[in-house]
Amino acid sequence: MHKFRELKVWQRSMAFTVAIYRESLKFPSDERFGLTSQIRRAVCGIPLNIAEGSGSSSNRDFCRFLDIALRQGYETMTAIDIARGLTYWPDDLCNTLQKEIDEIVAMLVGLMKSLGWPFKDSKQ
Fold first, then answer.
1. Which contacts of 87-90 are long-range, i.e. CB under 8 A and separated by 24 or more positions?
2. pLDDT tens profile 17-44
3. Sign of CA dihedral 13, 15, 16, 22
4. Largest CA distance in the chain
5. Using an 8 Å Cβ cutoff, are 19 and 104 in contact?
6. CB of 23 closer than 8 Å to CB of 93
7. Contact by Cβ (8 Å): 76, 39
8. Is 42 helix (H, G, I), strand (E, B) or coil?
9. Mind listing the domains of the chain with CATH numbers?
């Protein structure tokens, strides 16, 4: 069992989630059930999966949740690109957000590697 609140990647992903929620308030109201909902679900899933996985009884199981968080990081990256393409957010904000999610994703991979990922056998 891991103390997820002590993990730097959880702390950074929590702060990033709050930032995305605040910035997505700037999206047009007709995006409420579209991009706003999608980016919020994706970014929220990162710290949620870190926390849920921290209760796992094995490193392999924890890595399974971290892998889900990693994929949600990639989903968040794409949602930021969509927001940029639709000019909902300016380039400087998108660049800042992309830099932060890139670092969070790298931290997730680093944590997974420290737990023994990728595992040698096929039962990942």
1. 88/26, 88/27, 88/28, 88/31, 88/35, 89/23, 89/26
2. 999 999 999 999 999 999 999 999 999 9
3. positive
4. 48
5. no
6. yes
7. yes
8. helix
9. 4-114 (1.20.1440.60)
Give the number of other CB atoms < 10 A from CB of residue 25: 7
Measured CA to CA, the distance from residue 120 to residue 106 in angstroms comes to 21
Name the average pLDDT for the chain. 95
Q: CA 27, CA 89: separation in Å to the nearest integer?
A: 8
- In the chain, what percentage of residues exceed pLDDT 70? 96
> Which residues, 6+ apart, have CB-to-CB distance to 60 below 8 Å?
115, 116, 119, 123, 124
CA distance 95 to 26: 17
Closest CA to 53 of 37, 43, 65: 65
